[in-house]
Amino acid sequence: MPDRLPLSAFIICQNEEAYLGRCIESLDLCAEIVIVDSGSTDGTLALIETFVERGSPIRLFRESWRGYAGQKQFALEQCREPWCLNIDADERLDDALRAVLPSLLDASETVVGWKVARRPYLIGYGFTPERVRERKNLRLIRNGRGRYDLAQRVHEGIVPDGEVRPSEKGSLLHFRPLPMDEQILKENKYSSLKADQIVEAGGGPRRLKMVFNPPLYFLRLYLRNGLWRCGFPGFIEAMTGAVYSFLTESKIYQRNALKVAPASEPVESAADTRSDAQ
């Protein structure tokens, strides 16, 4: 067993039996693993128990669903080590990230967090190569130096209290190979959450974004970020991002339109009916 780092990994989960094991295995460097389950009915809890029996430093909490940001904030608050790592049940650390973690945790006190790349698995290709410029998100934070914005319904992130730097090496590997029919259901759900968040905050129709954001989203992912390197699987990934963008903007438009004029079937007057008959 390698020497454990002063790091608490925290995971929220529900029915993640198929993925959680590989995630936990990649966290053997962590002094603590906080898992918050929101009501699993598959074999997730039994799987966690097998890791506990093997000596894995897991602390399991059962907590009713608070929303993505609320659930992760609860998990973060349970962490006891000096550094905290946000990782999803279907993610794991690659070898490069495992190797660089000690130096990241040894950063000067002025650095409160690190952004880490996330490389997804594409059906028909595999994990995107390191040459693809995947977006880096804040995943590693000093304990007590960041918290989640509870107003964020989806794509929630840690709001840091201090300097954050990007890690030049290492990635989180995201393995959830959803076929397109299931992926579209996910994009539909997430776009609804995003649209509701924007509308409830007072956001009005964004007509130009509805027209231009989807193609720009595609071009950014496919050309600038380099998904073209992944062939047709990369094309599908970039196009799926454009679909999410369009769904979000169109839902914002329609939700605002329904506020102004709720949908109702027009009723023709008797005079209109006579005129049409003539």
Which SSEs are present, and which pair or pack?
Blueprint: E1 5-13, H1 17-25, E2 30-37, H2 44-53, E3 58-62, H3 68-78, E4 83-86, E5 91-93, H4 95-105, E6 111-122, E7 126-127, E8 136-142, E9 146-148, E10 158-160, E11 163-174, H5 180-200, H6 207-224, H7 231-260, H8 270-277
Parallel strand pairs: 1-2, 1-4, 2-3, 6-11
Antiparallel strand pairs: 4-8, 5-11, 6-7, 6-8, 9-10
Helix pairs in contact: 1-2, 5-7, 6-7
What keyword list fits this structure?
about 280 residues, alpha/beta, Spore Coat Polysaccharide Biosynthesis Protein SpsA, Chain A, 2 domains, 9-stranded mixed beta sheet, two-stranded antiparallel ribbon, 8 helices
Q: What is the CATH level 1 assignment of the largest domain?
A: Alpha Beta
State the low-pLDDT regions, or none.
none
Mean pLDDT: 95
Molecular shape: globular
Class by SSE composition: alpha/beta
Number of strands: 11
Specify the helix fraction band: 40-55%
CATH superfamily of the largest domain: Spore Coat Polysaccharide Biosynthesis Protein SpsA, Chain A
Describe the largest sheet.
Answer: 9 strands, mixed
